[in-house]
Amino acid sequence: MDFVTLTKPEIMKATIKIYLRNKPDINNNKPVVLRITKDRKTKLISLGFKAKDEEWDSDKNRFNKRSRNYQKKNRVLLNLEDRALKVIEDFTINNNMNFTLKLFEKKFRGENKERKNVNSYLTKLIDDFETTGRYGAAQPYKDLQSSLFKFTSKNLQFKEVDFNFLKSFEFYLRNQNHTEGGIAFKMRHLRALYNNAINEDIVDYSFYPFRKYKISKLKGKSRKIALNKDELNRFINVDLSKNEHLVQAHKLFMFSYYCRGMNWIDMMSLKWEDIYDGKIHYTRKKTKQPFIIEVLDPVKDILDFFKKTHSSTNYVFPILLKENLTPKQVKYRKHKTLRNYNLQLKEIGHLAEIDKQLTSYVARHTYATLLYHEGVSVEKISASMGHSSVLVTMSYLKEFDSHDLDLVNRKLIEEPIELY
């Protein structure tokens, strides 16, 4: 059913249609949308699905057999279509055919407590993130939405997300070969989603399942990623004379370390105009927090290196090679360059005889950890890194060498405690 028209002479016509919008992303996936037209005005509502042209039957406006789980998806689309009709029918019964398209969307998405469901809430959250260009923040929720849909294709209500549901979802993810850390990552985002729904009065706190279901039990094997002083010195002094292709990666890592563990996305967006009066001025993409960082001597040397070797754009580093890229192009470039960067860091780690997996985040964790061991307070480290709370900083610092703990234990012998 492509079009549904209310034909009673006493009301204005309203039509709905589900179709594949011609607006592809970087992977040529197009969004599936519901279009409602009323009083010559039109509104598009994302339904949380995407498909390539070859996965879509344009005659029936449904997924075809080339799309994975196409039957489940089509059942969901049919339910969404029925819901849209029911919303219009309710307006008709209540003699409210002067409803606005915004009011229709609110009723269709289920903004009241009885009709709000997890999938529609996720879709709205993802849309909000992407509208503001926060594609990185949207991605974990898109992954969560995909996993939830594969686990249960019905219109899941928040009230149905109880302890037993979470245990079953955990079991499902584990059978899909997700690691403990990966499962915990998804559960944390599901918990954040539920907290937001409570704050918006979509579901009552009495249904909150995470009082009983503890994500903390899903701890994977701890993996120390911060470098100690000896490892950092080996990294700094590694001989790259026979591996010149690794020089830029080495300098980018050190720049991040010296600049309070600056993230990759902030480094790639940094422009020469952001550096003046001996300071680096930028706003962190993740938290929107402004930073002013002194240009230390090692940082000046790194900047001079890139000033001489890279001048095709106003960007400091050769990561974004063109100006005025769209947010989606920036996202694609970020993932591509970050992957290559991490591979090069792995090579450097091998040459420096560092028995840890080096990634872009190691610079950030190393900065925090070494400051902590130098006696800097957690509060100051948190402020210098732009963390939203001290708890985030503590997650960076929770790992200690067993050797360090052994030294603490020895104090019980070397400095006996007097009993009174």
From TrEMBL:
Coiled coil: none annotated. It comes from the Bacteria. The keyword DNA-binding applies. InterPro entries: Arm-DNA-bind_5 (IPR035386), DNA_brk_join_enz (IPR011010), Integrase-like_cat_sf (IPR013762), Integrase_catalytic (IPR002104), Integrase_recombinase_N (IPR010998), SAM-like_dom (IPR025269), Tyrosine_recombinase_XerCD (IPR050090). Keywords: DNA recombination, DNA-binding. Residues 222-409 form the Tyr recombinase domain. The keyword Magnesium does not apply. Belongs to the 'phage' integrase family. This is Site-specific integrase.
